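Objective 1b of the project was to move from sequence-level analysis to a structural picture of ligand recognition. The entry below was assembled by the postdoctoral researcher (A.K.) and checked by the PI before modelling. It contains the amino acid sequence of the target and the SMILES of the bound compound, nicotinamide-adenine-dinucleotide.
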Amino acid sequence: MRMTVIGTGYLGATHAACMAELSHEVLGVDVDEAKIASLKDSKVPFFEPGLPEVLERNLENGRLNFTTDYAEAAAFAQVHFLGVGTPQQKGTYAADLTYVRQVVEDLVPLLEGEHIIFGKSTVPVGTAEQLQELADSLVKPGSHVEIAWNPEFLREGYAVKDTITPDRIVVGVREGATAEAIAREVYATAIAADTPFLVTDLATAELVKVSANAFLATKISFINAVAEICEQTGADVVALADAIGHDDRIGRKFLGAGLGFGGGCLPKDIRAFMARAGELGADQALTFLREVDSINMRRRDRVVQLAKEMCGGSLLGKRVTVLGAAFKPNSDDVRDSPALSVAGSLSLQGAAVSVYDPEAMDNARRVFPTLSYASSTKEALIDAHLVVLATEWQEFRDLDPEVAGGVVEKRAIIDGRNVLDVAKWKAAGWEMEALGRNL
Ligand SMILES: NC(=O)c1ccc[n+]([C@@H]2O[C@H](COP(=O)([O-])OP(=O)(O)OC[C@H]3O[C@@H](n4cnc5c(N)ncnc54)[C@H](O)[C@@H]3O)[C@@H](O)[C@H]2O)c1
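Corresponding predicted holo structure:
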């Protein structure tokens, strides 16, 4: 099948390349000329394991191409995926739908004949209906554009696997729409492998995505709230999470107490969900998400507070190493990153902060140019008075406390992700703190 993918960021570039991998003919479209030039040149402009190989293979076999030209996109295919950003609006909690609307405004007047736009961006419930009205008002006489919603559940770091073998496919359609049949063709490989294929109305499909993210955020903040109680009582949140996680109604995943969630999705998605509930006159339904957000943000403050205590009450003049800048391992995404937020706060309180991340250095430098960036873990650790493990990259999990201890000024560490072997680090003479534990 021929298709375009409009917006070639983390979601769109992955979707475009993976659809070509599944034998479709794909044209990726973006307004960012540098991004398109990079993708055409077989360079993924962000870190995503496995994606460079898929991109290169499909550029070479001719199934994949990229453009900034909407006219080319309009002529190329009758099926279009929309994956542009829906960031938080400045000054409010609501999602900014400017980019999503812009795509419809720029694409639809160029379309001839029957077209389907599958929205993949995460949007407030009701957006697809509004976009359908917008498309109806812009489409050429005699042509027709159908809007369907096909939310994306990929995880950065596992995006290729999640796109090629998703755990479920959700398609929201209007009554009598042709989108379901088209989606079945697009996802034929996954459907043949018994992947659950769920067809809903538009509103349900939009809500599935934000509800999933709200649930995940709530689960993380739940354990982090319990961590606060553990800190007050001498209990251990890691042992507690193991114990409750054995209950298969609860499950151990997403019960990792620590610095909490960040990134380009969960924080803005729960806020947009609350904002939308307010617009719908149902704000009470989601006020608990405000608390989920606050618990999450408090963990960042807690790490800064612990750092201060471990530095004798003041961070002034202390050298602090922050290991990690990405919002999670296996990604270079620093959007709303807890690690960078902590690094920034430590710096603002007078510490000399040295940051190292295996993949996110360039992005981190752009967001926080005032921090200093080391070129390796070892360089970052030199002469540190305190180390903060803020993103749980394998490289940091594997750190040898003796080797690290030989480089720092003082053996003191905060395990912000509860991933280090406490006994081993303590045996090597490290003073250690972690979230939700009394070490
Ligand atoms: N990143 C993820 O893991 C993920 C997962 C699921 C859902 N989502 C959702 O997918 C959407 C995109 O997220 P992302 O992380 O890929 O964002 P991103 O910022 O990496 O990519 C968005 C892209 O859209 C492009 N764009 C903006 N306006 C455009 C226009 N008018 N025409 C063409 N391109 C345009 C931008 O240049 C950019 O390349 C968001 O709604 C997000 O919530 C993201």
